[in-house]
Amino acid sequence: MALSDQLSQLAARTKKLEDSAGASRQKAKGDLEQDVNSARDTAQAHAESLRKSAEARKGQISAWWDNLQRSWNENIVSIRKSVDDREAEHDVKAAQRKADQADDDAAFAIDYAYAAIDEAEYAVLDAALARVKADDLADTSSAN
């Protein structure tokens, strides 16, 4: 898939998230629970797909991307455990603190995603520049 197509899919997915987040305040608890479970399943499936892609492309992608993917998986396991622990909370004040923390976590996740998009922009532009340089070298070689 072309990089521009991947970016278009990312933009569409981000818009879907924006719409979903805005609508979440009006949803009933049961509907939100279903949405949470669905989002978790989707995220886990995507993380697994990313892991498989990194494994299949080992040697084609930079080692640091592979290391980042592994670190991402480890962090996700820790985050999921924290969420599961938070769901077991029954004390009202503690539950409110946990809800505030969940809001802060979501805000940080958005900031993290924003930084990831900046990194994606850098990677896309770097790839385009590398391609231009390779084409220039090929043109120079074929001219000689």
Q: Can you give me a brief rundown of this structure?
A:
With 144 residues, this protein is mostly helical. It is 88% helix and 0% strand.
User: How many domains is the backbone divided into?
Assistant: 2
Helix share, percent: over 70%
Q: Write down the Rg.
A: 20 Å
Run of helices and strands = HHHH
> Unreliable stretches, pLDDT < 50, 5 or more residues?
none
Distance between the termini: 34 Å
Strand content of the residues, in percent?
Answer: under 5%
Provide a count of the helices.
Answer: 4
Overall 3D shape: elongated
Mean pLDDT: 85
> Describe the biggest sheet?
none
Number of strands: 0
SSE-based structural type:
mainly alpha
Question: If you had to describe this structure to a student in words, what would you say it looks like?
Answer:
- The chain has 2 domains: 59 residues; 53 residues.
- The protein contains 4 helices and no strands.
- Helix 2 runs antiparallel to helix 3.
Which key features would you list for this structure?
144 residues
Write the layout of secondary structure elements.
Blueprint: H1 3-23, H2 29-56, H3 63-87, H4 92-143
Helix pairs in contact: 2-3
